[in-house]
Give the backbone structure.
Amino acid sequence: MKNRYLATVAAVALCAGAAGAQDLKFPVGEGDFNWSSYESFADAHDYSGQEMSMTGPWTGLDKELVESVIAYFEAATGATVNYSGSESFEQDIVVSAQANSAPNIAIFPQPGLAADLAARGYLSALDDDTVSWIGENYAAGQSWIDLGTYNNADGAPETFGFFYKIDVKSLIWYVPEAFEEAGYDVPESLEDLKALTDQIVADGGTPWCIGLGSGAATGWPATDWVEDMMLRTQSPETYDAWVSNEIPFNDPAVVGAIEEYGHFARNDAYVKGGAASVANTDFRDSPGGLFTFPPECYMHKQASFIPTFFPEGTEVGEDVDFFYFPAYEGKDLGKPVLGAGTLFAITQDSDVTRGFIDFLKTPIAHEVWMAQSGFLTPFKGANSELYANDTLKALGEVLLNATTFRFDASDLMPGEIGADAFWKGMVAYTGGEDATSVADGIQGRWDSIK
Amino acid sequence: MSPLVQGALTILLGVGGCVGYFYGSNLLLDKVLFPARGPNIARNINRANLIRPWLFLFPAIFAAGLYLAYPVVGSFIRSLYNRAGTDFVGLGNYTFLMGDDGFRTALFNNFLWLLFVPAAATGFGLLAAQLTDRLRWGNIAKSLIFMPMAISFVGASLIWKFVYANDADIGLINAIRAALGAESAVDVLQTPFWNNFFLMFILVWIQTGFAMVILSAALRGIPEETIEAAIIDGANPWQVFFRIKAPQIMGTIVVVWTTITLLTLKVFDIVYTMTGGNFGTEILPSYMMSFMFRDDGRATAVAFVIMILVLPVMIWNIQQSRKEMR
C-alpha cells in the first residue's frame, strides 16, 4: 500500500518535472499566442501571496485543462488559486453558499442554477467594464450578456455570469465523400436544406438519420431540433419568452417550431427506418447510417459531442464532417446558434477574484485551452489558428459567425418541463400525436407547477 | 489501514456494542435502579422484570421506528404539502393525481402488471418445477431457468432491448417475423397496449426462476404416500398434479405469488430503461420518478398510493408465510 503511494508520488513528481518548474503548458513567448496580452496583464496585476478558491463541475481531464489555464494566472500575478472539481457541483455549491463557505468563484454548467443563487443574493455582480467588454469582444455579445444577467436579491437585473468554454449544438453531420459522390452541396439556407432533403428522396436515397432513444431521457434530441427551429422561425426575444413561459408552450409560434421539426422527422421518406423508428432508435446508434455503403442516410443533426459514438477509427474532418444548421434565407433572423456553456460567477468577492475575471478577458486565457482540446470560445480576440485541430476551428467559426446565441431551452426550463414533459411530449408528437395537443399537455404541466 | 483490519474492527465494535448494551443495561437495571436487596426487594424484582423486556426490545423498536415507521408517517405528512414543502395543501396532491391522465394510465398499467406478472411467473415456475422434478438433467435445466435471477433489472432490460430491436438483423422477434415472410420490422415497444406485456415478460423471465426454486422444494416435500395412493386409485397424471400435489403446496404458491406481487409493485427499472415511460407504458414507480426531487409533494403522494396498494398484499403475504411456518 505504502509502496504504491510512493510510486504514485514519484510518477507525479516526474511528470511535474517534465512539464517544467512553472507548470506552464506553453512556454511564454513561443508560438502564435497573444503573449503581449499576458505580459501586460502580468505588469498590471500583482497578487503575490494572496489566495483564491474556485469550484466547478470539471473533473479528470477537464480539471487538468482548466488548471493549465489557471497556471498562467498564477505565474502572472503570484497568486495561488485552488481549483476543486466536483461531480455533484450543483448540490455542493448550494450547500456551501448557504453555509457561507462558498469559494471565490463558482463555475456553473448552466445558467439556471446561477440565476437561482443570484436571486438569493449569493452572487456578486460583474463590474460595468467587464459587461461592456463582453458586449464588444464576444461574437453575439449581447446574447452572452443576457444569458449572464439575472435578478439580484432585490429583484433588479444585474450581470453576474462570465461565459467561458462553450458547446455548439446547431450542427449537421454528413459524410463528405457520400455528398461528393451524389453531387450534393452543403446547403447554405434552410430552404436549400429542405430542397436537398427532397432531392435525396428523388434520387432514391434517405436524407436523415434521427434517433430519440436515450433510456429514461428518451426524447431529448427532439428538443434540440425544436429549439433550433424556434431560433430559425422566431425572434430571439420570442425564444426567451418561451423559455420563461411568458408565452405559453402551446403558442402558435412554438407549435410552428414543433411542426418544422415534424416536417423532417414525421416523413417516412425522409428518415431511415421510417418515421415510426425515430422515437425508439437510440441516439447513440442513429448516426451509424451515415457510414454504411451505400449510405442509409446522408445527414444527422446532433451536438459537437456526437463523434464519440461514431464507428471506431472515424476521422472527423476526413471521414465525416459537419456544417452549420442553416437559417431561413427568407427570414431576417441572422445566424442563430444553439448551444450550452459554462459561466464563471463570483460567489465571494475579493481583489484576486476580480483580477481573475480580468484575466479571463485576455486572449491568452482562451488560447491556452483552445490549443489543447475540447474548448470553444466566442471571443473574437483569440487567435483561432491556435485551435488544436481543424474540427475545433470549424466549430469555433460557427460560434464566431453567430449573430445570436441561445442556450439550450430545455436546460433552462424547470426540470419537470425541460427534463420530462418536453421530452415525453416530443416522443408522443414523433409517434403521431397532434402538435397542438402535445403542446397543450406540456403547458398544462407547466401550469400545474406554478 | 487494510480493509481486513477495518472489517475486523467493525465486527468487534458492532458485536461488542450489542453485548455491551444488553449486559450493561441489564446491570444498570439490576444493580442500580432496582437492586434486588434492601427493604423493597420484592417490589424491585417485580419492577425490574417488567422493564426488562422493553430493554431488550428497545434497539429493534428504535431501528424499526426510525427506518420504517418514521419514513411512512413523514412521507404522508410531506404529501400534504406543496411543491416546496412550505404550504399545507391538504389532499391537493391526491386530487391532482386523480385528475391527471398520466396517473390514470400508470395506475391501469400497474394493475395489468399486478395481474399478469405474478400469475405468469408462478405458473411458469410451477410448470418448470414439475417438469424438471424427476429428470436426470433437471438440475441443469433448473440452473438455466434460475440464472436470470442473478441479473439486475437494468441488465436484463438491456438484453431484452436487443431481443425487441426494431431490426430483423438484431431483434429476435423481428427475425422470426422476417423468417415468416413479414416485409418490414415492427417496433414492439411502440405497439399500443401490447407493449406493456412485452415489458412485463422481462420481469416474468427474471422471476420464474425464483418461483421454480421455491415450488420445486415444496413439491419435494409432498409425502410420497399421498401420490402413490392416488396412482393406485387410478388417477391420471393431470389429476395427480391438480388434485393431489397442487392443493398440498397451495400455501407455498400463495406466498410465492404474493412475494412476486410485492416485487412487481416496486419494479420501475424495466420501464425506466426500456421506454422511459413513453408509448403509454408508464407505471406508478416510474411515474413517481418524474416528480422526485422536483415536486416532492406529488412524488410522496404517488409513493403513498403505491403503499396503499401494497398493504393488503403484504398483510396477506405475512399471514400466509406465518401459516407455512406453523
